[in-house]
Design brief:
- It is built from 4 helices and 9 strands, in the order E-E-E-H-E-E-E-E-E-H-H-E-H.
- With 125 residues, it is an alpha+beta fold.
- The chain has one domain: RNA polymerase II/Efflux pump adaptor protein, barrel-sandwich hybrid domain (OB fold (Dihydrolipoamide Acetyltransferase, E2P)), CATH 2.40.50.100.
- It has a 6-stranded antiparallel beta sheet. The chain has a 3-stranded antiparallel beta sheet with strand order 4-6-7.
- The longest helix has 7 residues.
- The chain is globular.
Length: 125
Amino acid sequence: MSHNPTHLLYAKSHEWLEVHGSVAKVGISDFAQHSLGDIVFVDLPSVGQTFEKGDEFGAVESVKAASSLFIPVSGKVLAINEALINQPELINQDPYASWMIEIECTDTTEINALLDASAYEKIAH
C-alpha cells in the first residue's frame, strides 16, 4: 500500500516536490523521516538563496544521525517553513504537510526527471 501521496513528485535522495506551475514546495519523504528517527534540528537556507539541482540546501538532524538535504530541481528560495525551526518534530508527525522550502524553479524541464509515487516506492523500502 502506498504511503506516498500520488500528487507529489520524488527525488532518489528522498525529497518530495509539490509543483504548481514554476513554484514548488520541497520536503522529505515518509521513508526519509522514518529512517532518520526523531528529528531534533532542521537547518534551512535563507530566502533569496539560489541552488542548482543536486545542491545541498540544508540538513536535518535526528537522535541517530545528521542528513543533508538536496534540492531536486534548480531554483530560488521564496519561503522557508519557519515552524520547523522551533518544532522539527512536525516532520516526523506528517512529513507531507511539513514542507521545508518553497522555490521558484529556474528550469521546469528538470521536473520531468523526478519520480512519481509508484516509481519512488520501488527504491524507498
